[in-house]
Design a protein that fits this description.
The chain is of the alpha/beta class. The chain contains one helix and five strands, in the order αβββββ. Helices cover 16% and strands 29% of the residues. The radius of gyration is 16 Å and the shape is flat. Keywords: Signal.
């Protein structure tokens, strides 16, 4: 019974974290290999800018990617 209860609590905590937030501006600080989705005018309609953090001395990777509507929510506040 304790195992079932712990699995239910764990799944309730993990499921809300599975969605990726879409930001309105690119964050100034981004950890190496961390991914941020940014809605910008540089990408065509229906796509967002995927920014991947890099180690010191290397440029960040930026690419326009398609965004399924059920996997992300639009952030209301800008960082």
């Amino acid at each position: 019974m304790r195992i079932l209860l712990s699995v239910l609590l764990l799944s309730a905590a993990v499921l809300p974290c599975s969605a990726q937030t879409v930001l309105k501006s690119e964050p100034l600080m981004l950890a190496p290999y961390e991914v941020a989705l940014v809605q910008t005018a540089s990408c065509p309609s229906g796509k967002v800018l995927k920014v991947t953090g890099a180690i010191r001395g290397v440029s960040r990777k930026r690419a326009c990617v398609a965004l399924p509507s059920e996997t992300a929510s639009l952030a209301t506040a800008t960082p």
